[in-house]
């Protein structure tokens, strides 16, 4: 990882103080039990299939062509979309337009401070975002041009990637980029028997490793799925961890249903924007 | 490479008839060539040739300090180098995106402790551990990179020998390690759980594995499915298309089935590979 020497970088190795927290003396399993009760009710009172409260708003960055902001409880992501411009550093003509995505965690958004440059995780999330949005945008409408999409996570409390994809869809619509469909994205965390929609950061962390090994259930993992609402197409699918086939089958079903739930909100948000701009024209 | 509509239809019909343009069935791979232990300075190495794709993987091991948040674990890192020998597109920083994509997907696939047990690499809790560097060199690109890379990585890890640590003594802040002097005194890694990646391509109504360059042009979307034992460790979608949830499931089933077959075949081959007396090297 190259370091930007023009900036003042902190010391090379620092450790987040949370590591010395009392919580860390507890085993992962009992931590998980604290977050999710055996009947599936989570620490914030949600059931396993519930989303967190979602807040969506368009037009938050005045200088961008289109922009949107999402909150999934504490997770906060802001996305801005800029006017199409000619694809830089390219000599050949491309009959389809390009999408450029940049996913970035703000330096202060996670436990550990993030650097200004994109790290490999952010680069991968950018690629996933691009993959998700490509099939939602009518790219033949702007040949040889590129649309830049910048997603900045202001606070990461889990499911930041899917929040970014959902809100990028809204921002694209707000920017007036021609699109085939609305796009919504949902994250799912699996740990043993528990399947949690829209996990927060702690739930996400605890699902990285198998905790119920002694019960012969080593299923664990994170699944992110993006759906095109009316076409019922999966535009992007990403999974990590260790999941069996039947787990994945049910996970896909849960995710497609959960993705449909958000569509209403996205529509409402865009309708609100249209009404508002129509009023502005009247005045 | 560009195909006209008639050629595309020809490929598509072939896939529907379960008789592809090169005579394979839908779930067949092209022939592969695998060699292990070919780089003498590396702790383990493998070279895989799958049709026109050529991958060389070498494993290096160093002693390092474990991450403070995971004191009982060693480290495993993947580096992909897209050599400009493969295609001129990789010149300069051209191959960087692809390299990051492949190394990230490998890191994701190996992350779960069920897949690869990093605790075996710990020498002294919180103080010393082995760090495995897996360097992947793409010598030639003929499509289906993920599959080739994952198989080569698994073979190279299989071939890897870690020096045996006889004793560790702690004296205040100094840690003394005694490594066995016997050259053949070493540990092998357990790679039965190491994931195999299978790229499943959707062409028309059917899913195929190991697409050739012409078939890649006809496909609307592809899934890279990595399977470890009989579970999925990573799945990612590539290409700009989208899939219906039902199709997604069918692709997953195909990938699952093929990956297990490939895994069995690979283990069988690896067990069979004997230290060859007439070493040929990979440039034959």
TrEMBL record, chain A:
<dbReference type="GO" id="GO:0003723">
    <property type="term" value="F:RNA binding"/>
</dbReference>
<dbReference type="GO" id="GO:0071028">
    <property type="term" value="P:nuclear mRNA surveillance"/>
</dbReference>
<dbReference type="Pfam" id="PF01138">
    <property type="entry name" value="RNase_PH"/>
</dbReference>
<keyword id="KW-0963">Cytoplasm</keyword>
<dbReference type="GO" id="GO:0000176">
    <property type="term" value="C:nuclear exosome (RNase complex)"/>
</dbReference>
<dbReference type="InterPro" id="IPR050080">
    <property type="entry name" value="RNase_PH"/>
</dbReference>
<keyword id="KW-0271">Exosome</keyword>
<dbReference type="InterPro" id="IPR027408">
    <property type="entry name" value="PNPase/RNase_PH_dom_sf"/>
</dbReference>
<dbReference type="InterPro" id="IPR036345">
    <property type="entry name" value="ExoRNase_PH_dom2_sf"/>
</dbReference>
<keyword id="KW-0698">rRNA processing</keyword>
<dbReference type="GO" id="GO:0006364">
    <property type="term" value="P:rRNA processing"/>
</dbReference>
<dbReference type="InterPro" id="IPR001247">
    <property type="entry name" value="ExoRNase_PH_dom1"/>
</dbReference>
<dbReference type="InterPro" id="IPR020568">
    <property type="entry name" value="Ribosomal_Su5_D2-typ_SF"/>
</dbReference>
<dbReference type="GO" id="GO:0005730">
    <property type="term" value="C:nucleolus"/>
</dbReference>
<keyword id="KW-0694">RNA-binding</keyword>
<protein>
    <recommendedName>
        <fullName>Exoribonuclease phosphorolytic domain-containing protein</fullName>
    </recommendedName>
</protein>
<keyword id="KW-0539">Nucleus</keyword>
<comment type="similarity">
    <text>Belongs to the RNase PH family.</text>
</comment>
<dbReference type="GO" id="GO:0071051">
    <property type="term" value="P:poly(A)-dependent snoRNA 3'-end processing"/>
</dbReference>
<dbReference type="GO" id="GO:0034475">
    <property type="term" value="P:U4 snRNA 3'-end processing"/>
</dbReference>
<dbReference type="GO" id="GO:0016075">
    <property type="term" value="P:rRNA catabolic process"/>
</dbReference>
<feature type="domain" description="Exoribonuclease phosphorolytic">
    <location>
        <begin position="51"/>
        <end position="178"/>
    </location>
</feature>
Automatic annotation (TrEMBL), chain B:
<dbReference type="GO" id="GO:0035925">
    <property type="term" value="F:mRNA 3'-UTR AU-rich region binding"/>
</dbReference>
<keyword id="KW-0963">Cytoplasm</keyword>
<dbReference type="GO" id="GO:0000176">
    <property type="term" value="C:nuclear exosome (RNase complex)"/>
</dbReference>
<dbReference type="InterPro" id="IPR020568">
    <property type="entry name" value="Ribosomal_Su5_D2-typ_SF"/>
</dbReference>
<dbReference type="InterPro" id="IPR027408">
    <property type="entry name" value="PNPase/RNase_PH_dom_sf"/>
</dbReference>
<dbReference type="InterPro" id="IPR015847">
    <property type="entry name" value="ExoRNase_PH_dom2"/>
</dbReference>
<dbReference type="GO" id="GO:0000467">
    <property type="term" value="P:exonucleolytic trimming to generate mature 3'-end of 5.8S rRNA from tricistronic rRNA transcript (SSU-rRNA, 5.8S rRNA, LSU-rRNA)"/>
</dbReference>
<dbReference type="GO" id="GO:0034476">
    <property type="term" value="P:U5 snRNA 3'-end processing"/>
</dbReference>
<dbReference type="GO" id="GO:0000177">
    <property type="term" value="C:cytoplasmic exosome (RNase complex)"/>
</dbReference>
<dbReference type="GO" id="GO:0071035">
    <property type="term" value="P:nuclear polyadenylation-dependent rRNA catabolic process"/>
</dbReference>
<dbReference type="GO" id="GO:0016075">
    <property type="term" value="P:rRNA catabolic process"/>
</dbReference>
<dbReference type="Pfam" id="PF01138">
    <property type="entry name" value="RNase_PH"/>
</dbReference>
<comment type="similarity">
    <text>Belongs to the RNase PH family.</text>
</comment>
<keyword id="KW-0271">Exosome</keyword>
<dbReference type="InterPro" id="IPR001247">
    <property type="entry name" value="ExoRNase_PH_dom1"/>
</dbReference>
<dbReference type="InterPro" id="IPR050590">
    <property type="entry name" value="Exosome_comp_Rrp42_subfam"/>
</dbReference>
<dbReference type="GO" id="GO:0034475">
    <property type="term" value="P:U4 snRNA 3'-end processing"/>
</dbReference>
<dbReference type="GO" id="GO:0071038">
    <property type="term" value="P:TRAMP-dependent tRNA surveillance pathway"/>
</dbReference>
<dbReference type="GO" id="GO:0071028">
    <property type="term" value="P:nuclear mRNA surveillance"/>
</dbReference>
<dbReference type="Pfam" id="PF03725">
    <property type="entry name" value="RNase_PH_C"/>
</dbReference>
<feature type="domain" description="Exoribonuclease phosphorolytic">
    <location>
        <begin position="194"/>
        <end position="257"/>
    </location>
</feature>
<feature type="domain" description="Exoribonuclease phosphorolytic">
    <location>
        <begin position="29"/>
        <end position="163"/>
    </location>
</feature>
């Amino acid at each position: 990882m190259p370091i930007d020497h023009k900036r003042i970088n902190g010391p090379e190795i620092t450790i987040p103080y949370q590591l010395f927290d009392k919580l860390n003396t507890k085993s992962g399993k009992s931590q998980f039990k604290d977050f999710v009760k055996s009947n599936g009710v989570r620490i914030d009172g949600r059931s396993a299939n519930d989303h967190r409260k979602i807040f969506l708003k368009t037009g938050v960055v005045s200088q961008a062509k289109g922009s949107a902001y999402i909150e999934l409880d504490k997770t906060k992501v802001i996305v801005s979309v800029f006017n199409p411009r000619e694809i830089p550093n390219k000599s050949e003509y491309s009959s389809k337009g390009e999408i450029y995505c940049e996913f970035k965690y703000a330096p202060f958004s996670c436990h550990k401070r993030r650097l200004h440059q994109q790290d490999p995780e952010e680069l991968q999330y950018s690629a996933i975002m691009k993959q998700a949005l490509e099939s939602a945008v009518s790219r033949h409408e702007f040949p040889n041009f590129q649309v830049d999409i910048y997603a900045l996570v202001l606070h990461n409390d889990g499911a930041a990637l899917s929040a970014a994809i959902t809100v990028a869809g809204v921002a694209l619509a707000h920017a007036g980029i021609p699109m085939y469909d609305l796009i919504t994205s949902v994250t799912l965390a699996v740990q043993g028997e528990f399947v949690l929609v829209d996990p927060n950061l702690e739930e996400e962390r605890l699902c990285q490793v198998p905790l119920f090994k002694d019960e012969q259930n080593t299923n664990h993992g994170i699944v992110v799925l993006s759906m095109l609402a009316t076409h019922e197409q999966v535009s992007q699918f990403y999974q990590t961890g260790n999941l069996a086939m039947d787990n994945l089958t049910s996970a896909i079903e849960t995710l497609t249903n959960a993705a449909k739930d958000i569509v209403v909100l996205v529509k409402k948000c865009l309708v609100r924007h249209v009404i508002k701009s129509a009023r502005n024209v009247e005045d | 490479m560009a195909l006209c509509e008639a050629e595309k239809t020809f490929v598509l019909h072939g896939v529907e008839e379960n008789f592809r343009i090169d005579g394979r069935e839908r779930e067949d791979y092209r022939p592969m060539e695998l060699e292990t232990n070919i780089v003498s300075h590396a702790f383990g190495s493998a070279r895989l040739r799958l049709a026109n794709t050529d991958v060389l993987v070498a494993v290096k091991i160093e002693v390092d300090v474990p991450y403070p948040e995971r004191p009982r674990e060693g480290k495993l890192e993947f580096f992909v180098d897209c050599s400009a020998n493969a295609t001129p597109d990789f010149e300069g920083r051209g191959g960087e995106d692809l390299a990051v994509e492949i190394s990230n997907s490998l890191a994701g696939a190996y992350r779960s402790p069920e897949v690869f047990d990093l605790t075996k690499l710990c020498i002294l809790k919180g103080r010393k551990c082995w760090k495995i560097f897996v360097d992947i060199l793409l010598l030639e690109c003929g499509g289906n990179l993920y599959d080739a890379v994952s198989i080569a990585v698994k073979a190279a890890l299989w071939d890897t020998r870690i020096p045996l640590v006889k004793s560790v003594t702690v004296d205040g802040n100094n840690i003394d390690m005694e490594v066995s002097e016997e050259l053949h005194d070493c540990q092998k890694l357990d790679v039965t759980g190491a994931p195999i990646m299978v790229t499943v391509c959707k062409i028309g109504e059917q899913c195929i594995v190991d697409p050739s360059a012409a078939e890649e042009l006809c496909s609307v979307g592809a899934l890279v499915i990595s399977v470890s034992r009989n579970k999925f460790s990573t799945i990612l979608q590539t290409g700009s298309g989208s899939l219906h949830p039902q199709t997604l499931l069918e692709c997953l089933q195909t990938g699952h089935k093929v990956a297990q077959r490939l895994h069995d075949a690979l283990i069988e081959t690896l067990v069979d590979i004997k230290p060859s007396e007439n070493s040929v090297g990979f440039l034959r």
